[in-house]
Specification:
This is Cyclic di-GMP phosphodiesterase Gmr. This protein is 49% helix and 19% strand. The protein is an alpha/beta fold. The structure holds ligand C2E and magnesium ion (MG) (3 copies).
C-alpha cells in the first residue's frame, strides 16, 4: 500500500503544484550551472551619508539566466538556501565583493567606500565560516574595516552563542556587522544587547510609510534612538522620496540612507560613476586639499 502511495505521489498534488515542482527542479539545476558558467553578477546600491555624500554600497547578487533573462534574488536565494547551493554562491559573492573592495582601495576617490555583503544563516552556521572569511580576506586583500556583513534576525534565535562567537572572532580582524531588515524578524530586544553589531538596518516596510503614517514614523524614531543609545549606526533601506529622507536624516538623525531616491542597485561601472559624482562636501574638500 505504501509502495502505491510512493509510486503515485504526484497524484496528491494538483496540476499547479506539479508545475511548481518541475519549475523548481529546473531552476535548481540551472542555478548549479549559473555558478560555473559565470551567469552571476554583483550590483551595487549606494548608501549615502547625512551630508549627501556617498558612504558605501550594498552588494546584491544578480542572475542573468540564458533563457529567462534576469532572475531576481527573491526567486533564487530561498531555493539556494534549501538546496545548500547558498554555500558556494555565498562564497562567490564574498570573494567578488572583497576583490571589488580591494580594487576601490587603489583608487583615491573610491578608497573610503564601505561594502555590505548579505550572509545567509546557512553560511554563518557552517563550522568553518570564520576560517573561510579570513581566507577570502587574505587572498583578496581588502581593508577589512570597510567590509560589513549583513545578517538577518531569523538566524539568530536558535544559535545565538555560536553566531556571537563567530562575530567576535571576525571583529578582531576589523570586519563589521549589520542587522538587516530590522523590525521584521522575531528576535527580542535582548538579542540586540548581546550581539556585537555595528549597524542596524531599518526595514523598508517601516520606511515606506514614514511620511504618511504616524505609527511608522514613531517606530522609525524609536529604532533610531534605541540604536544610537546602543552605539549603533542606522541605515534606512528602501528610501524612495525626499520627504522620507528629510524625516529620517534631518528630523531623526538616521546615519545612512539607501534607496531608489538616490539610486537603484547598479552594475559596477555605473556605480563607480555615481560614486565619483557624489563624493560629498567633506570628501571633496579633502580631495582638493590633497591635490
Ligand atoms: P536586502 O538585503 O534587504 O536588500 C535590499 C533589497 O531592497 C534589494 O532587493 C534592493 O534592490 C531593494 N531596494 C533597495 N532600495 C529600494 C527602494 O527604494 N524601493 C524598493 N522597492 N526596493 C528597494 P534585491 O536586490 O532584489 O534583493 C532582495 C533580497 O535578496 C535582499 O534583501 C537579500 O535578502 C537577498 N540577497 C540579495 N543578494 C544576496 C546575496 O548575495 N546573498 C544573500 N544571502 N542574499 C542576497
Ligand atoms: Mg541586505
Ligand atoms: Mg535589507
Ligand atoms: Mg529587505
Amino acid at each position: 500500500k505504501s509502495k502505491d502511495a510512493g509510486r503515485n505521489t504526484l497524484h496528491f498534488f494538483d496540476p499547479a503544484m506539479q508545475r511548481g515542482l518541475l519549475e523548481r527542479n529546473a531552476l535548481e539545476s540551472d542555478l548549479r550551472d549559473a555558478l560555473n558558467q559565470g551567469q552571476l553578477e554583483l550590483h551595487f546600491q549606494p548608501q549615502m551619508s547625512i551630508n549627501g555624500g556617498i558612504y558605501g554600497a550594498e552588494a546584491l547578487v544578480r542572475w542573468h539566466h540564458p533563457q529567462r533573462g534576469m532572475v531576481s534574488p527573491v526567486e533564487f536565494i530561498g531555493l539556494a538556501e534549501e538546496t545548500g547551493l547558498i554555500l558556494p554562491l555565498g562564497l562567490w559573492v564574498l570573494e567578488t565583493a572583497c576583490r571589488q573592495l580591494a580594487s576601490w582601495a587603489t583608487q583615491p576617490e573610491l578608497a573610503h567606500l564601505t561594502l555590505a555583503v548579505n550572509v545567509s544563516a546557512k553560511q554563518i552556521l557552517q563550522p568553518n565560516f570564520v576560517e573561510q572569511v579570513l581566507h577570502v580576506l587574505a587572498s583578496t586583500q581588502p581593508n577589512p574595516h570597510h567590509l560589513k556583513l549583513e545578517l538577518t534576525e531569523s538566524l539568530l534565535i536558535d544559535n545565538l552563542e555560536d553566531v556571537v562567537g563567530k562575530m567576535k572572532a571576525l571583529k578582531l580582524h576589523g570586519v563589521g556587522f549589520s542587522l538587516d531588515d530590522f523590525g521584521t524578524g522575531y528576535s527580542s530586544l535582548s538579542y540586540l544587547s548581546q550581539l556585537p553589531l555595528d549597524q542596524l538596518k531599518i526595514d523598508r516596510s517601516f520606511v515606506m510609510h514614514i511620511d504618511s503614517q504616524d505609527r511608522a514614523m514613531a517606530i522609525c524614531a524609536a529604532i533610531i534612538s534605541m540604536a544610537h543609545s546602543l552605539k549603533l549606526r542606522v541605515v534606512a533601506e528602501g528610501v524612495e522620496t525626499e520627504a522620507q529622507r528629510y524625516i529620517l536624516n534631518t528630523v531623526h538623525h538616521c546615519d545612512y540612507i539607501q534607496g531608489y531616491l538616490y539610486s537603484k542597485p547598479l552594475p559596477i561601472a555605473g556605480f563607480e560613476t555615481f560614486a565619483t559624482q557624489h563624493l560629498g562636501a567633506a570628501k571633496a574638500t579633502t580631495r582638493h586639499k590633497n591635490t
